[in-house]
Amino acid sequence: MPIFRRRRFPAAAFVALSLAACAALAAGQAGRRRDAGSRERAALLNVTAARDDGSGAPVRPTEIALYDDGLEQKILSFSPDPSPARIVLLVDNSQTLRTDVPKLAQVAREFAYEIYEGDQMLVVGFDEHAEIISDWTDDPKAVEESLSGLRKKGQPYLFDALTAVVSEALRPLTGSVRKRVIVLIGDGLDRGSKTKFKEALAELQNTDITVYAMQIPDRTGGAFRRDQPKPSEVVRQLAEGTGGRVLPLANPREAAKTICDELRKNRYLLAYAPTSISYVDTRRIYVASDRGVTARSKTAQPPK
Length: 304
Prior knowledge:
Blueprint: E1 5-6, H1 22-26, E2 43-51, E3 64-68, E4 71-73, E5 75-80, E6 85-92, H2 101-114, E7 120-126, E8 130-137, H3 140-146, H4 158-170, E9 179-186, H5 197-206, E10 210-215, H6 231-242, E11 246-248, H7 252-265, E12 267-272, E13 283-289, E14 293-296, E15 300-301
Parallel strand pairs: 1-8, 6-7, 6-9, 9-10, 10-11
Antiparallel strand pairs: 2-12, 2-14, 3-4, 3-13, 5-12, 7-8, 13-15
Helix pairs in contact: 2-3, 2-7, 4-5, 5-6
């Protein structure tokens, strides 16, 4: 299992937050068998929903439908989730990436000034290893001072970096923070990870972690990959499969604002009691919405 290294900074352990609360999340992840008559034991699903006209009016439960394993499920509640987020900026700083270090630093800087009160961000760079650039903070100056740790070298081990972030940065927050997010800044290329793409995606879906991506042009020119999707497909599947989205790197300030606004203003918590579904196979999750409303969630629930 890949582990984080600390890059040019004193060792400061990740905040260990209530491992015992794992039991609480077990009630919150889609895919557990529940008693249909018990609201307290309902499964929970993170949903991003907004009105297409940009009015900002809340989306009503009657405007949403949920299909789990191909069957429509009874929605017990659908309510806005204004809780704070924990956002990991996962920055590809490998040697051949088609952008420069100042541009990568600018992206991190924009997020530091766009996050909402209560949010915190962590900056992790990766090549063959995932390394902390800036530890959990809501202080823009602390992020600014850490960005000298960015540099370009080595090969991109993206899938190993994703599993490292999940296991060491975000899983410890299980039960205490529902909005756990990775913002990938890269082109989706992986050259050498021990972790397979499907394993990385399944882990993100199982832990209810949303991936956004600020996409950099594919350095391979769309070359065929024998044992994994093309880089652009990796980016798309990571985002769509976890309920996130892909934004261009061209305007970092606008992209950072869009992501932070969406997390605070357009996230909902959907509660339902799963019925007539499989617990041993990967299930498809689909959230449908009325005309004029766009809704997203993770697209699958792998078996535990």
